Amino acid sequence: MDRNEIENLIARVALRDRAAFEQLYDRVSAKLFGVCLRVLNKRAAAEDAMQDTFVKIWKNADRYNANGLSPMTWLITIARNTAIDRLRARKKGHQDIDTPGFELVAPGPNPEQAAVASSEALRLSGCLDTLEQDRGNAIRGAYLDGETYADLADRFGVPLNTMRTWLRRGLIALRECMSQ
Amino acid sequence: MTDQTEFPDNDDIHAAELVLGLASDDDRTAGRRRMATDPTFAAHVVFWQERLAAMADSIDPVAPPARLKQRMLAQVFPAKRVSILERVWLWQGISVAALLFAGYLGVQLLTINTQPNQQPAVLAAQLVSDTGPLQVLAVIEPVSHEIALRRIAGEARTDRSLELWAILPGQAPISLGVLPDSETARILVPAALRSQAAQFTLAITDEPLGGSPTGGPTGDVLAAGPMTTL
Q1: Which residues of B touch A82 (CB under 8 A)?
Q2: Interface of A with B in 141-180 (CB under 8 A)
C-alpha cells in the first residue's frame, strides 16, 4: 500500500474532505476488516468495530501527524484497539449478537508464517521466533487476541506475577532483537 | 520463580505492555495520559506500535459488506432534516397553485367587473419545531377564509390532542380549534380575525384530549411558524 497516498488521504480527511474519507475507506477497509475479524472472530461484532474505527478515524485524523506513526500503523492500531475494546466488553458479559454459522474458523497456531509481506513483518516474525516458543506465542496472543496477563496466566497455568515477569523478559529480548 | 530484584521494570516495558494491552485498565488509562505529556515515553510507545503492527501483515484483507460503508457514512454524516422551506418542489407547487388561483380570480374579477386591486393575497405558514418531529403546512384560502392544513410529519402524543392557535403581536393566543387525527384539515378563521391574518403566527400545542380546558394553551408548543405572503 502506497504510504504517501494513504498519508495524503488522511491529511485531507483532517480537513473534513468527505470524498477523501470515502477513498480512504475504499483503500483500507478490507485490511482493517481483516484485522477486526481476526481479533473478534464474529462478523457482526467485526462490522460494529469497523464502524467505530472509521468514526474515530474521521474524528481524529487531524491528530495523525502528531503521533509519528506510519499511516498504516496508525489505522491498524485504531482498528485493532477498537476491536480489542469490544472483545473485552464481550468478555465482561456483553454478548454480541451474531448470525449462527458466520463464525470464522479459528486460525492455526502460527498464522505469521503465512504470507509475510513487509521486511518489518519478516523481522518481527524472525525476532518472535528467537524467543522461547511460548513467549512468542504469548506476545502474539496479546496483540492479536487481546489476551491480558490474567488470560495468559490462566492459559499457561502459572501465577499472574510469574507470567508478568516471564513475559517481560520476552519483551526485553524482543526489543533487543528488533533494535539490532 | 524470581525475586524482586530481578523483576524487569522500565519505561520501555510499560510502553510495550500498553501497546499490547496487557496492562490493567487503570494502568492503561495512566499510560495513555503519560503518552500525551511525556515525549520520551511516547517514543517508546510509537516504537512498539510500529513494530508490533507488522503482525497485521499476516492478516488477509477481507472485503466488508457494502452496507457497512453506507451505515458508517450515515453515522458520520447524519442526514440533515430537510425543512419545508427547502423543499423546492413543494413551494413550486404552491406557487403554481397560487398563480392559477390568482389567474382564476382575475378572470372572475374581470367578468364581474370589480376593482382588480383587491386581489387577496394567499397566506401560508410552515409550522415546525427545532426539537420535535411535527411539521405542518398551513395555507389560508382568501375567499373561503379557511386554513387548509397538511400534516407533513409527526402526530399527536398518545391520548393527547393537537390544538391550533393564532397569535397576533402583543396578544394572547386565540384558539382556532383542535386538529383531527387526519393528515389534512380545514379550519375556518373567525370573522373578527380575518383582516389580520397576515400578521398571524400559527402554533400547535400539546393539549389534553379534546383541547385546552382553560381557553389558553396549557401544553408544549410542538410546532409554530409565522404567516408569509405567497
Answers
A1: none
A2: 142-144, 146-149, 152, 162, 165-169, 171-172, 174-175, 178
